[in-house]
């Protein structure tokens, strides 16, 4: 089994916990309060900007041209995702210019950027892999019985799309397998990132308007 597959299987408990989280289940059945989703949209946009920056740092530090090229392909995918969030922002009346990152968001983005600046390309790929793998997993699971017809259908449609799960996720997995090895630090980094994902949903679920 490849390193990326082993890391995913080892942390599948956290992936399933995210799937069962009331925030994610609310997206799945359409019952999530709109104000919580609006908060999530702003936080996720802030997160994705840091995610793109971390990819850019990793690209610059890639040890070979192929890695540089793949990282830039992944950056393009994140930029497309940010365009989707811009559409969400209009729909949900979110002013991206006034978004202030919450504690969970800042903890996650600081972790990603510190990893990208302070460690090698392999560990950066490991730190970023849970986000993409988890969202593909959530999208596919929520769409298992067909994409529902409710306000969050576009979210499910985006992350269940085979182009996202099969192309972008697999490209990042390839970088994990190429540049990282099964060290304790790699295992800890992956699990911490997966926990940050769960905490991100929890923060959005707990949010209350001032």
Describe the structure.
- The chain is mostly helical and 210 residues long.
- The chain has a single domain, classed as Heme oxygenase-like (Heme Oxygenase, Chain A).
- The chain is 79% helix and 0% strand.
- The chain contains ten helices and no strands.
- The N and C termini lie far apart (48 Å).
- The model has no long low-confidence stretch (mean pLDDT 91).
Topology (elements, then pairings):
Layout lengths: L2 H8 L1 H9 L1 H8 L4 H27 L4 H27 L11 H16 L2 H22 L10 H8 L1 H18 L4 H23 L4
Helix pairs in contact: 2-10, 4-5, 4-6, 4-7, 4-10, 5-9, 6-7, 6-10, 7-8, 7-9, 7-10
SS-derived structural category: mainly alpha
CATH C-level label? Mainly Alpha
Total helical segments: 10
Number of strands: 0
Largest sheet: none
The CATH H-level homologous superfamily: Heme oxygenase-like
The amount of beta strand, in percent, is under 5%
Q: Stretches where pLDDT falls below 50 for ≥5 residues?
A: none
**Oligomeric state of shown chains:** single chain
Name the overall outline.
globular
- Terminal Cα separation, in Å? 48 Å
Rg (CA only): 16 Å
CATH topology: Heme Oxygenase, Chain A
CATH architecture: Up-down Bundle
Q: Into how many domains do the coordinates divide?
A: 1
Specify the helix fraction band: over 70%
Report the average pLDDT across residues: 91
Order of helices and strands: HHHHHHHHHH
């Amino acid at each position: 089994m490849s390193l990326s597959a082993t890391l995913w299987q080892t942390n599948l408990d956290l992936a399933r916990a995210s799937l069962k989280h009331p925030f994610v289940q609310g997206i799945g059945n359409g019952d999530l309060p709109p104000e919580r989703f609006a908060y999530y949209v702003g936080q996720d946009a802030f997160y994705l900007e840091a995610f793109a920056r971390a990819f850019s740092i990793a690209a610059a530090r890639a040890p070979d041209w192929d890695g540089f090229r793949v990282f830039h392909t992944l950056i393009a995918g994140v930029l497309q995702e940010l365009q989707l969030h811009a559409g969400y922002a209009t729909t949900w009346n979110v002013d991206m210019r006034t978004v202030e990152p919450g504690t969970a968001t800042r903890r996650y983005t600081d972790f990603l950027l510190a990893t990208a600046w302070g460690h090698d390309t392999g560990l950066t790929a490991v730190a970023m892999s849970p986000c993409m793998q988890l969202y593909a997993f959530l999208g596919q699971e929520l769409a298992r019985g067909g994409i529902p017809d409710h306000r969050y259908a576009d979210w499910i449609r985006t992350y269940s799309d085979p182009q996202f799960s099969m192309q972008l996720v697999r490209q990042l997995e390839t970088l994990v397998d190429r540049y990282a090895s099964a060290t304790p630090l790699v295992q800890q980094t992956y699990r911490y990132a997966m926990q940050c994902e769960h905490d991100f949903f929890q923060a959005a679920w707990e949010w209350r308007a001032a």
